[in-house]
Specification:
single chain; alpha/beta; TIM Barrel; 2 domains; 8-stranded parallel beta sheet; two-stranded antiparallel sheet; 12 strands; 44% helix
Length: 333
């Protein structure tokens, strides 16, 4: 089991440098940054900065999207970061939920997500590529053949199919073992049906972790199911609440959802939190004392999770990393 951390763009640079050094020494293998350039600062300067203060940790957006940047700019950016970090750059990719909607634009469709994945990976390798926004072929003459890992964020059946068919892994914003298994099996099955070798396919469960008294833990992480509910609402609108294509346990909790404020995306002061129950908070995150964290992460590992990625933005970040270094990560080594 690998362990990762995820930052939002409001972490001050000096603190980010210290946190990544602490996390690398603690045994975390990945550091991710939200890529939503209006809600938070641009993440790639922070990634480049943090790379210079680590030697083993891998970095990437969690998640970027096909519509924020011209594809040649994205490929050049990714290849540059991979080159200067000696291969420590990876990508999480989605449709552009918050990044687009906060500007009143629509997220990319899944065909565009799939095409972006294959064509940007090819450009990063150094291959000549032609795509819709560029009438002439594009080739990065300085690219050195890096094989860029692209992990696709997904919930719905079609997104999971896309992740399996073209991605190197799937990013699941949830830490419920049964749901992680349900999602991951769909992506892996789609990849196998497409004739792909799925033996190294990554299943990344991304969720908050908080330690201590459960009431305090729940209060610190209540924002997270609201963010997940925003995505689930899209799926329910598309497929229906009782279609059988999405588990009832995932759709039932959003029945009382009244809205979502994208300007407060992923933040504890989002006004639409009243529908979140304690049971949902407990299910979606990793909370409680150390033995509870170990037990739940072992459940995640048993259903195929390859990385537990902590959304490190509920407070006490240094202490959470320290506790994971002392008691949690050693249980998986």
């Amino acid at each position: 089991m690998d362990f990762g951390i995820t930052f939002k763009g409001f972490v001050k640079p000096d603190r980010a440098r210290k946190l990544v050094k602490q996390a690398e020494e603690a045994g975390f293998s990945h550091c991710w940054f939200y890529d939503s350039h209006i809600l938070w600062r641009e993440c790639y300067p922070a990634i480049a900065m943090c790379m210079e203060h680590t030697s083993k940790m891998k970095f990437g957006p969690c998640v970027t999207n096909p519509n924020s940047r011209d594809w040649s700019i994205a490929a050049s950016l990714f290849a540059s970061l991979a080159l200067q970090s000696e291969g420590r750059f990876v990508v999480g990719l989605g449709r552009g939920d918050s990044a687009m909607r906060v500007m009143g634009k629509k997220p990319a469709n899944l065909a565009r997500v799939a095409e972006f994945t294959t064509k940007v990976k090819a450009m990063v390798r150094g291959e000549e590529v032609q795509y819709g926004e560029s009438p002439e072929p594009v080739k990065l003459p300085w690219a050195v053949g890096y094989e860029l890992p692209v992990h696709i964020g997904a919930y719905g059946p079609k997104a999971l199919k896309t992740a399996g068919e073209v991605g190197d892994g799937v990013i699941l914003q949830i830490a419920d073992p049964a749901l992680v298994q349900w999602f991951a099996q769909q992506a892996i099955s789609a990849g196998k049906e497409a004739g792909r070798d799925m033996s190294n396919f990554q299943v990344i469960a991304s969720a908050p972790a908080y330690m201590g008294d459960m009431d305090k833990c729940r209060e610190a992480t209540r924002w997270f199911p609201a963010m997940v509910g925003n995505h689930v609402a899209d799926i329910v609108e598309k497929y229906g609440a009782h279609s059988g294509l999405v588990p009832e346990s995932l759709t039932n909790y959003i029945e009382q959802r009244k809205g979502y404020d994208y300007s407060k995306h992923g933040q504890s002061d989002n006004p639409y939190l009243d529908f979140i129950t304690d049971e949902i908070i407990d299910s979606f995150s990793v909370l409680g004392e150390a033995d509870q964290h170990i037990a739940k992460i072992k459940e995640l590992e048993a259903v195929g999770t390859t990385q537990f990625n902590i959304y490190l933005d509920s407070g006490d970040e240094e202490e959470i990393i320290a506790q994971y270094a002392k008691t949690i990560i050693p249980a998986f080594r």
